UniProtKB/TrEMBL annotation, chain A:
It holds the Pfam family ETF. Residues 23-211 form the Electron transfer flavoprotein alpha/beta-subunit N-terminal domain. This is Electron transfer flavoprotein subunit beta. Keywords: Electron transport, Transport. Its cofactor is AMP. PROSITE patterns: ETF_BETA (PS01065). Belongs to the ETF beta-subunit/FixA family. The electron transfer flavoprotein serves as a specific electron acceptor for other dehydrogenases. It transfers the electrons to the main respiratory chain via ETF-ubiquinone oxidoreductase (ETF dehydrogenase).
UniProtKB/TrEMBL annotation, chain B:
The keyword Flavoprotein applies. Binds 1 FAD per dimer. This is Electron transfer flavoprotein subunit alpha. Belongs to the ETF alpha-subunit/FixB family. CDD domains: ETF_alpha (cd01715). SMART domains: ETF. Signal peptide: none annotated.
């Protein structure tokens, strides 16, 4: 079966973002970029399904400008067979991304689409669920275990109270949580090989979808700073401060 | 302006976070209806009728909704949506699961994790792990919103709403529930606790988390963990506090052996008072702590327990 893995280029998770002085957005100029960590887990899961003989082909896809080809090449180096870039210079709402992906799902007919549960930039946690709705597929979100069994996939989900396992009819959508797997590093030979794997570019405008923005970003501000605290010398002093100064314990 | 709020519950009790989501709804408008979708959820319905400022409680009591399967719940909400301009759910794992599905079925954007309401179409939400705060205007006629409860206080439970039973059943037939593996704990939920004590990689193993028990008992605290501690298998996933785990804002948050990666800070830096116990004086956690103590946690924890 075919597995489709949509991925996103985002700020590297170790970098603390800065807000632009005019509060129009965050400043990403000269910032280190990477594959969204949850998307990396999604690629790894798809590649493992292929290595186990369950998947036959892994297709990585990203929506964005030319720079996201860098992340698609990384996905190819990690084991994806081919890649698709849907080219646009616009920053699209999750709903419009899902609509573009829906078209690709219709064309490619994957049995499984694996996405990261959220991107660490916009923190929306929407695209997988929206794609599931648009394609009429069931969804296993926040997955920590994925098991394909016949015409179903069992997904163990990380939920507030612990874990929940659901059985989904295939084709299905899965979104990854942190414990699903530990992604591998791309080896040098695989990075070289990835340069020769196919990467197709399709302009977003060719999909015939109305991509009008549904939301408008009015401003972006830095969060309120916490005022600097103090270092106490002893547990006695800590307990005294919590009781008498902060008054949070009695 | 009519608002539908979907109740977060486990079929036996209404989750306290719903009371905060209703507060967010009240900042948008005053005509508020609740939806309880569940199975054998009479107690939840009863609690829902008492939520302040609510006029109606819609009840869909059917096996199809027992486990809050997103495929089924989203169809139900979509069917009800025509009567409402705003649809709100709590940004916990249940709401996060089915709400974007609702939004896509309605062909509207979702505004996730709002922490403030500016007007009926403009909302404030954190991005980049809370390192930036965005103000977003929805351009859709219908607004689908999830609410981060740390931004809102709970409303009172002195109401008396009317119950309306729904007879339609929306079973998509795409998915089924297999099993739950839920953590049983006598302690308060992380989302509801006024005191939280969390352990990180510095705890070294799962057994050492027992060192937090005595302190948690004395303070009536919930116990949390950093991602590092969960990834290492010290404790289960439902204890994780952080950007993509639980977002908490208790009166007192005690971080033990947690270095303070930005992803962890994103989940707790709105706490009223933060205490950090760490042997590394350079740990970033000290930059957000009101009170820090540079100490070996294996000395500090027993002493703290004995002095509380």
């Amino acid at each position: 079966m075919k597995v489709l893995v949509p991925i996103k280029r985002v700020i590297d998770y170790n970098v603390k973002v800065r807000v632009k002085p005019d509060h129009s957005n965050v400043d990403l100029a000269n910032t280190k970029m990477a594959i969204n960590p949850f998307c990396e887990i999604a690629i790894e899961e798809a590649v493992r399904l292929k290595e186990a003989g369950t998947a036959t082909e892994v297709i990585a896809i990203s929506v964005g400008d030319k720079s996201c080809q860098e992340q698609l090449r990384t996905a190819l180096a990690l084991g994806a067979d081919r890649a698709i870039q849907i080219e646009t210079d616009e920053s699209l709402d999750a709903l419009n991304i899902a609509k573009l992906l829906q078209k690709v799902v219709e064309e490619e007919q994957p049995q499984l689409v694996i996405l990261g549960k959220q991107s660490i930039d916009s923190d929306n946690n929407q695209t997988g669920q929206m794609l599931a709705a648009l394609t009429g597929m069931p969804q296993g979100t926040f997955a920590s275990v994925v098991k394909v069994e016949g015409d179903k996939v069992n997904v163990t989900r990380e939920v507030d109270g612990g874990l929940q396992t659901v059985a989904l009819n295939l084709p299905a959508i899965v979104t990854t949580d942190l414990r699903l797997n530990e992604p591998r590093y791309a080896s040098l030979p695989n990075i070289m090989k990835a340069k020769r794997k196919p990467l197709v570019v399709k302009p977003a405008a060719d999909f015939g979808i109305d991509l009008t923005a549904r939301t408008k970003l009015l401003k972006v501000t830095p969060p309120a700073e916490r005022k600097a605290g103090i270092v106490v010398e002893s547990i006695d002093e800590l307990v005294e401060k919590l009781k008498n100064e902060a008054k949070v314990i009695s | 302006m009519s608002i539908l709020v979907i109740v977060e519950h486990d079929n036996s009790s209404l989750k306290a976070e719903t009371l905060k989501t209703v507060n967010a709804a009240q900042k948008i408008g005053s005509d508020i209806t609740l939806l309880v979708a569940g199975f054998n959820c009479q107690n939840v319905v009863e609690a829902a009728t008492k939520v302040n400022g609510v006029s109606k409680v819609l009840v869909a009591d059917n096996a199809a909704y027992e486990h809050q399967l997103a495929e089924n719940v989203s169809l139900l909400v979509t069917e009800l949506a025509s009567d409402y301009e705003h649809i709100l759910a709590t940004a916990l794992t249940t709401g996060k699961n089915f709400m974007p599905r609702v939004a896509a079925l309605l062909d509207v954007a979702q505004i996730s994790d709002i922490i403030a309401v500016e007007s009926s179409d403009t909302f404030v939400r954190p991005i980049y792990a809370g390192n930036a705060i965005s103000t977003v205007q929805s351009l859709d006629s219908k607004k689908v919103i999830t609410v981060r409860t740390t931004g809102f206080d709970a409303v009172a439970t002195d109401g008396n709403a009317e119950v309306v039973t729904l007879n339609t059943v929306t079973d998509a037939g795409l998915s089924s529930h297999v099993s739950d593996e839920l953590t049983v704990s006598e302690r308060p939920d992380l989302g509801a606790a006024s005191v939280i004590i969390s352990g990180g990689r510095g705890m070294q193993n799962g057994d050492n988390f027992k060192l937090l028990d005595g302190i948690a008992d004395k303070l009536g605290a919930a116990i949390g963990a950093s991602r590092a501690a969960v990834d290492a298998g010290f404790v289960p996933n439902d204890m994780q506090v952080g950007q993509t785990g639980k977002i908490v804002a208790p009166d007192l948050y005690i971080a033990v052996g947690i270095s303070g990666a930005i992803q962890h800070l994103a989940g707790m830096k709105d706490s009223k008072v933060i205490v950090a116990i760490n042997k590394d004086p350079e740990a970033p956690i000290f930059q957000v702590a009101d009170y820090g103590i540079v100490a070996d946690l294996f000395d500090a924890l027993p002493e703290l327990e004995s002095k509380l």
